[in-house]
Amino acid sequence: MSALPLITAQTEEALLAFLTAHRQSAFRVKQIMDWVWRKRVSSFDAMTNLSPALRQLLAENFRFYSPEIIEVHGSADTTRKFLTRMEDGSLVESVIIPAATAENGEKSDRITLCVSSQVGCAFGCKFCASGLLGLKRHLTTGEIIGQILSAESIAGKRVNNLVFMGMGEPLANIDNVLPALDIITSHIGLEIGARHITISTSGFVPGLKKLAAYPKQIRLAVSLHGATDDVRDQIMPVNKKWPLSQLIPALEDWGKDRNQMPTLEYILIENVNDSPKDASHLIGIAKRLHAKINLIPYNTVEGLPWKRPSERHCYAFRDAIRKTGIPVTMRYEKGHDINAACGQLRLRKESSQTSQN
Ligand code: SAH
Ligand code: SF4
């Protein structure tokens, strides 16, 4: 593997530092970013407003690279999931979610991409396919951004909404995620507004504190999935180290200086977290945090025992929350049939590769 860093992983600050160190003018940053992010060239030779010497300098220090797209599932109007292979053979999955028709009946051109932040996950939530094989490694800044570039080449459109809800715990890989966010939100980079980006965390409190210090108004979703320590301890090992008594104050701190509150993600799993008592604990937390709730009927994962409650039961749970006035939505996963729950595609592929070996 070539050791040169990817040009697509360079923040404005990093490029500026590089150019300054090589006695180049600062305005070259904008020119280079323009070639990379607006014109989407794939070689330094194509950067025709730079001197040949500067192009050579860049080529000696950086490289272009796009991961190989090895599988695409789904069709253009639906959720499409794709698998890419990194240079070390690691498999990464991402999901393209086209906008639903806008409320006024017109088709909106919003495209949401669900990106992975790690290969696998160390957090081992009991219901999740990503955790089943453990953590292989963090994704680099370039690999996180590479998913957006791959998605845009598959969809033929720009991605304008981003959710870190694929494989991995983004806050455990904050050192690669924050520079990616710099590039993604930069007005001379991918130019996706911070408010169109959501980071989802299972409740990794040290990472939450670092994200709170990040100046951009990135949205936050918290995978709560249980509204008491008893329930969370059963299904999410992270809760043993950072129980609700630590997580909730950390979320309050996160929200203090911003004009927004986190969304609480809550998977509904039959007989685990779906009783009226669970609903009332959840309501208590949402009130305390002034948070919205997003209910997600569980997507079954092959080999795991958990089940999705009946549709009626899910709606009853939602209605119990709704009548308290707390904003609540229920997201029936569009991609149930294409293994859209995070980690499932890779799991299948890795398992079939292992069984072939
Ligand atoms: N690690 C982060 C982000 C990735 S997971 C987190 O846990 O928040 C993205 C979301 O998918 C999380 O809310 C996760 O709990 C949920 N999820 C995982 N497996 C699922 C499944 N089988 N069905 C429905 N949602 C699932
Ligand atoms: Fe990791 Fe999130 Fe899956 Fe838990 S739900 S194992 S934190 S990816």
Q: What are the secondary-structure elements, in order, as H or E?
A: HHHEEEEEHEHEHEHEHHHEHEHEH
Q: What bound compounds does this protein have? A: S-adenosyl-L-homocysteine, iron/sulfur cluster
C-alpha Rg (nearest Å): 21 Å
Q: Termini, distance in Å?
A: 24 Å
Q: Strand portion, in percent?
A: 15-25%
> Low-confidence segments, ≥5 residues, pLDDT <50?
334-340, 353-357
Kindly name the structural category: alpha/beta
Total count of helical runs of at least 4 residues = 13
Average pLDDT value? Answer: 90
User: What spatial order of strands do you see in the largest sheet?
Assistant: 1-2-3-4-7-8-9-10-11-12
User: Helix amount, in percent?
Assistant: 25-40%
Number of strands: 12
Shape: elongated
* Main beta sheet strand tally, sense and closure: 10 strands, mixed
Structural commentary:
This protein is an alpha/beta fold and 357 residues long. 38% of the residues lie in helices and 17% in strands. The strands form 2 sheets. It has a 10-stranded mixed β-sheet with strand order 1-2-3-4-7-8-9-10-11-12, with helices on both faces. The chain has a two-stranded antiparallel ribbon with strand order 5-6. A hairpin with a 5-residue loop joins strand 2 and strand 3. The chain is elongated. The C terminus is likely disordered. The structure holds S-adenosyl-L-homocysteine and iron/sulfur cluster. The site of S-adenosyl-L-homocysteine (SAH) has 17 residues, from strand 8 and strand 10.
